[in-house]
Amino acid sequence: MLNQAEQVKQDGIIAGTLNRRRFLQVAGVSAGAVGTLGLAGCGGLIGVDPEAGPAPSIEDVLNFALNLEYFEASFYSYITTGAGIPSANLGANPGTITGGAQVKFTDPNVAALATQLAADELAHVQFLRAGMSYFGLTPVDAPALNLAALGAPTDDASFLALARQLETVGTSAYEGGVQYLASNILAVEYAARIHSAEGQHEAALRQFCISKGITSPAVDKYDRPPVLGSNTIFNTSVVTGLNTARNASEVLQIVYAAPGMTGVLSGGFFPKGLNGNVKST
Fold this sequence. Notes:
This protein is mainly α. The protein has a single domain (4-255), classed as Up-down Bundle (Ferritin). The protein is 46% helix and 1% strand. It has 8 helices and 2 strands; from the N terminus they run H-H-H-H-E-H-E-H-H-H. It has helices at 4-10, 20-27, 43-46, 58-81, 108-134, 156-177, 185-212, 248-255; strands spanning 97-98, 145-146. Strands 1-2 form a two-stranded parallel ribbon. Helix 1 (4-10) packs across helix 5, helix 4 (58-81) runs antiparallel to helix 5 (108-134) and helix 6 packs antiparallel against helix 7 (185-212).
């Protein structure tokens, strides 16, 4: 059985048939400039205003994503098992995680959904950490997390309501960032595949909310919560039929519980902010 680093090397999402030089080209950097992301900006992908300064490094981009994966993996792990993800996946000096608690599900289908979400998000953490290490980058440790920042789920309904909110944020973040990958078709392909997985997560959660008549409040002005018997089966615009694309400042405003505020460095689910260089709304 392959270990995680070997699997990353084999898997086409990171390496596969691509050698290290080709991977860096996909990411938009030259082989001689590993530390500099060669894109004009990263906007929705990592929460950096493309007009605010130079683009962040590829290490910063991946660490931003890793912070969010730590959060999602920890959230679903506590929900399904009452404990966090294994310490081997958190780094040498992880932050304190508070507010996590197991939910005693009454619907086995909801329990199965939560279990698969937990497995997917833990795999994302392992994949990112192993991928970064393979390419000589340093993954940040898990940040301090307050999993009860919006209230701890206690049953099927409160879990579905909150998980739906979290997944719609993740889906829209990829839509906001894909424009910055347009010069590289492979990067667009991989981003689209990840976005598709996030979209499946969101769609399943929306359908459960609709079928059970569960209210999942809007996370911001762009969100269209699912409502039984309405035209919000999908989180799409009634004008364009398109899903919402959020830039990363908008994503961080949600997870920091700082709606409409810029320059915020912490709060909400991340009481001490993200680890790494990219952390401001």
